[in-house]
Records
---
Amino acid sequence: MAACVATVCGADVETWRVTELAFEADADYDKTGADAVTFDAVFTHASGEKVSRPGFWDGGKTFRVRFAPTKSGRWSWATTCQGNAALNGKTGALEAKPYAGDLEIYKRGFVKAAKGAKHFTYADGTPFFYLGDTHWGLYKEEIDEPGPHAGSTGAASHFKYIVDRRAAQGFTVLQSEPIGAKFNVQDGKVDASDISGFQLADRYYQYLAEKGLVHANAEFFFASQMSKKLADDPAAIDRLARYWVARFGAYPVMWTLAQEADNDFYHERHGGHNFYCATNNPWVTVAECLHRADAYRHPLTAHQENTKHTTVTGRGTEKGGPEKFGGRSAFADAAVAARTGHTWWGVQWSPSLTASPDCAAARDYWADPRPAVNYEGRYCYLWTKDFGARAQGYISFLCGMFGYGYGAIDIWLYLSTYDVKRASHDGVDKITPEDKQVPWCESVEFPSAHQMAHFKKFFTSFDWWNLKPGFGDGARFTPRSGTARAPAHGIAYTFATLANPNRTVFYFYGTNRLTGTVHALTPDRFHSARWFNTRTGEWKDESVTFVSDDRGNLELPPLRRRRRGRLSRVPRERERPRRHAAHLLRVPSGRSRPQG
């Protein structure tokens, strides 16, 4: 009979923390691989709740099952196996205690995309603030040494140092691709040569879990590396998906499907595959297989192409998207979404920093019931600088994308030479080839990285998940006409409202200090404004009072020099003497360049 040993990660089995069971088969699979073995374990709580987890081969005779208890109490487990009798019919039990630490992800449970909500929640229903840091080349980041770009950080581990800093800066998600991974499953198989690479990958996942970060990880390989042979082999795709879910699905994760995988006009156009598009996209099959294997129902998306090419329906793309594909997502249909477990949108959007945002794209995402995250935009010191990296977050949230993926040079893709030899310009700042040589030891401390904590602080000071984007609606706000000293073309703004209480949040950015007029307020009411500094995260103690006119209009004054760089927030609208609630947010701007 085969031996069974339960190995616990940590001193106790705690709710939502990964627990591992190790099993020994009666055959060594190093020469053949274990594709013919289908191994599962069902965990049953005393209450009757069941969680089914696929097992995975870990080299030689070793098979493992990873499980995160969803509630405290006694869990019994039993295995089933086809292909190796020694792994079949094993039973046991474990006692899960309530999580005793301070990390929100384990206190509240894994992140969910709740049906009908435009934001993520923890398992207990508490809203989850998605603030991601981008690491497409995660497995290139040295985990046991500082690497050549560590500078004077004193880091012993390049990867762990950045994760520690990002956790301290308030980030909640790490976004990764398997670029540089030490395993290669493009042939649709996991063989002995892949095992050590997967065991190394475990260490990255485990450390992120230890720090309480959610890992938005992409599956298998880069989108263009999908071969036609594998695309035409759904059984092989299913085996890979089961293996991925078995190995990593008991950690706090989100599935993100390759890169630029939806609808994949991009890779065909730029010399990748030429055998699939939105209508026959094999990543739909990948999603379906992941969803079928994943009892935890982790949020799942396909990393989309740039919004120039693909949105939800295609209506948000340039001219409705490329004529050949219509710009429509391969996951747009409700039936496809249900079958695949596609529950959110990983958007690639770079909104203008000198004009109000492209409302067509934002409206397309807002009209769909699934949450949207601005998953990939301009990376700091590659295609923007600190102003743009900071502003993208505010613009995204006020346009209804309740999540933001920040990125910085030499971290978004470690040791990358991509687009580093020519200058870039985001409409505000020029990014020179010299700027693009900044190593991660410096970019990890960019001002905008620290200012992401202020961004999070601002939105979590009120019910951000109830914001409804205004999309530049002229019935709600009219920008002030320009003058010779302050031309109108320098005005840019975005805003969102909270229905209950009735608040409005404004973000102004542009090349002058003009604001405009807020409409549709209750006539003849007092409004108090409070300022927030996006660079320091400080609230101004005193407030400024305004009064709406008898038609419900409120003309905001031009932003003064001494207010430079500050956001104003108008938290209360009140009737004499009774109060109503309203929020206004203002972003003063510099005379010659945007400020935010």
---
Amino acid sequence: MLLSIQDLKVAFRLGDRGSKTLAHAVRGVSFDIPENSTVALVGESGSGKSVTAMSVLNLLPDNAQREGRILYQGRDLLQASLPELQGLRGREIACVFQDPMSSLNPVFTVGQQLSEPLMKHMGLSARQAIERAEALLGEVGIPEPKRRLKSYPHEMSGGQQQRVMIAMALACEPKLLIADEPTTALDVTIQRQILELLAKLKTKHRMSVLFISHDLGVVGEISDHVVVMRHGVIREQGPVERIFSAPQDAYTRALLACRPSLTDIPARLTVIDEHIAAQAGNGAAQRVAKAKDPAAPVVLEVRSLAKSFWLREGLFGKREFRAVRDVNFQLRKGHTLGVVGESGSGKTTMGLTLLRLHEPTGGEVIFDGKNLLKISDAERQQMRRRIQIVFQNPYASLNPRFTIGQTLVEPMSIHGIGASTAEREARAHALLNKVGLDASAFGKYPHEFSGGQRQRVAIARCLTLDPEVLVLDEAVSALDVSVQAQVLNLLRDLQDELGLSYVFISHDLAVVRFISDEVLVMKDGEVVEQASAQQILAAPQQEYTKRLLGAVPRGWSPDRAAVTA
């Protein structure tokens, strides 16, 4: 057995060093990782899966307390000294994290960062390390590896950065790779490439992988054994085929049920607690989705929208980069337009250009009979009340110095909504209730909330101005499947109740299929296909669209079992 975790308990000391107050994150977790196998840790945010994995090499803060046993090739790592652990890190056990930009040093080139572990652990000279680094970049599929050695992390795409992280992790040919949510923020085609790369490298190097994820669709495609965690305990574990074909625990069944599907489109997505309650016979009646009016009035019309950026080339030259080209669509009242495509396809730039957060280089955006791209600043201020945006990362878009109450009241004060502060605060309380947050949230700060709760606050802030159109830019892509289901259900409820229209930008086709009435598929700044959501799914016309659909993780299936048998 390569690694055996036995009765692991992890708690975090709250307060100063002498405090006895503990927050228990992991409560008696036990599982094994055999040689040359992939074990997946699955659960929602806060389930303890990352804390469990980071305990292996003690990559936890100083206030963490660990008990139990972590046996690596028979050696208890909980008893290992810091120098012993440093000798293992990178050499025999390596890690790949979710956000490569927070792990890669922005002031060092890729070549320098790849060379460091090779010289430290393998004793290579600087020249040998650079040659090995070039080979590693080629192995993980980065084009022109010799040139890329001189690149800085910010000069590479998200998928390329993640490949660099994998190359760094594999530099010393470790026996165990810990991959903590390595594909969560990537688009479906890059995610597919990273999953296939990990599977290929695992086979080539005969290493084991501890793969951490909240997405059972991804887990079903890559793992041999699955460990399901919730609230710091293991709810269920077993071979991947048994977990998917005959899950024993109600929580596992709920996790499988709450992810959007490309084939089954329910009126509402299943939420974990609702699914468990329904199985116990305590479930509430399912709400029926409100029927859309195909003849609803057009609230937003985009004609030949274009956006270019000018890039410096040489000492005095510059060249035009056409990020968005000739985009056309109509958005009806109460309807949702889904916009999908890979990273770099222009979908976010298109959304920001609609709102003139990027100044357009051509086209028209007609709203309420006026071209938003030509109106005065005073008129634009008024129009911004009626068209709002929700960003991917709510923590970056919420002011950390403002309480939630201040965040909601400020836009109402600026736009003169409400006759008094008391009236605005009452409206803010009502909006918090509408998005599923209680009154205590009013006086708290953003850091006191989970990602899903912060996204609800961001949606509530938009609603303070009574908008008619919301642009949602990857608004659920970083959320785990259950919280994602809650936010998507909330968006659908608000649309039914308030008649909102959405431009929903996402790389997740299953999510887009659930919430959208019409879909635009973008590639290299252009719309390559446009049709109803049902038509796009059932009969895609373009090869690019078919490739996007083919890259969507579908979990374990008997077909996979037949291939791997």
---
Amino acid sequence: MKFADLGLTEKTLKALEKRGFEEPTEIQARCIPMLLEGTKDVLGQAQTGTGKTAAFGLPILEKIDLSIRQVQALILTPTRELAIQVAEEINSFTGTQPIQIAAIYGGQSIGMQIGQLRRGCHIVVGTPGRVIDHIQRKTLKLDHVKKLVLDEADEMLNMGFIDEVETILQEIPEGRNTLLFSATMPRMILRLAKKYMGDYEQIVVKHNDLTSDLTEQIYLEVREYDKVEALRRVIDLAENFYGLVFCRTKAGCDDVAKHLSNSGYPAEAFHGDMSQAQREKFLARFRDKQVTTLVATDVAARGIDVQNLTHVINYSLPQNAESYVHRVGRTGRAGNMGTAITFVTPEEYRKLQHIKRDTGSDITKKDLPTIKEMIAVKKERILEEIKQAVEESKIDEFSTMALRLIDQYGAEELVSSLLRANYSEELDASNYKEIGQYRGRRNDRGDRGRDRGDRGRERGRGRDRGDYRERDRDRGDYRDQRGPNLQDSTRLFIAKGKKDNMSKRELVEYITKVSNVPGKFINDVQVMQDFSFASCSMKDAEKIIQSFKRAKPGKRAIVTKAKNSK
């Protein structure tokens, strides 16, 4: 089927052709003809990435009366980012038509929005709170609204906007065409549809299609204190990682992003505490791939629509199936393969099973690669890069230099030296930390019973020292296994680098020698040409700094806290 078969006019088809749209998605093919006819309301089940914006946006554009400079369509979205995205997407379909579209949301100057509304708009896209604000100010009049869209209605329900939505619905004249789109259909959404929609058609994407077939879905069993290390391995294992990492809290986003950034990964946090200007700046950097890892909360990520994401990482397990669908739907789009990886702690295993059941998703268990496997993958990647460089090389002045060096040192010794000089840091196994063995405790009834029995037997027989360390780690005392945790971490600046013949290993040994802080408590070491960085607990940081001051009193401090560190 082509878009031309759906009843769209030539001007709209030209705009679609310009955008590179060729064939409609399932939701578009089923919705557009019905909405053009306008005799039925539509209840559509479709998640992000299925093309639902075009499914309701194109019929709205077709029905706009340009002779009336009034709001004729209102689209409600749960977040400001989604409001901006939907407005931009619909605007891209207008072609040469002088249709005016306004996005109104909190965080933007209300005066600017009032001016835009007074000049006249045909379509308004907005968040419920700001829409109500304009209605109360009488700067938004809905008397001429013929099309009303509730986009991502389940997310509005989750965010507590249903009362505001009902208030807005009561302000719009009867006889409107109502379109409700949701990734899932909880009972509250269905009640809303029955109460406020007329004769409606329900269009449902098949249950097993809630998550894309183009997305490989994996879960990794990992303890909470090993998650950052697991995340680093996932990023390093991907050839060109470009993805979203989901955390449950804003503080969690900040901690994970800081940890990655301090380790040399281009990562930034993205959450609701940022100003709109900051959010737009960060999104622009992410779209341009200046930042390749965006660590976000569910709410903040609602409006992020970035193409070609390679990965979605559920650093924190989603609260429910709806959240899982929304997250995973951000990769595996437009014919591109994607990977969704979920970190699962022992306590969360049953919750993961509920998500698998409710979404119909095939989420496969895989094991994290060991340090040895990570280094092997990197070696193969380096060899492939060199092979490609050799195949693309030309005979030039470097060829002459190469012949002289081979003649002087021999090919094997020469290549080995060049590899060591360029890749020794990248292939240093100390870049990674050991991850404790997952003991397989899961909160289902059978496993709980077995665990109780095991604990009883352990008490009867006694345990060796290693068993007690495992017990302490289960209680949350991770220091002997992992060093400082994220909440108690600070960054050190060390005035020594490669020019001082420092490698990561040598730098850690140097700090340990002066301060007596064990090397296993020093993390995320980054050696630059003239200086270096390392992370440790705030308590150990003070000990290290004071030790270096005592070692060289009156001299320039070799170790200090890095700027912007706690």
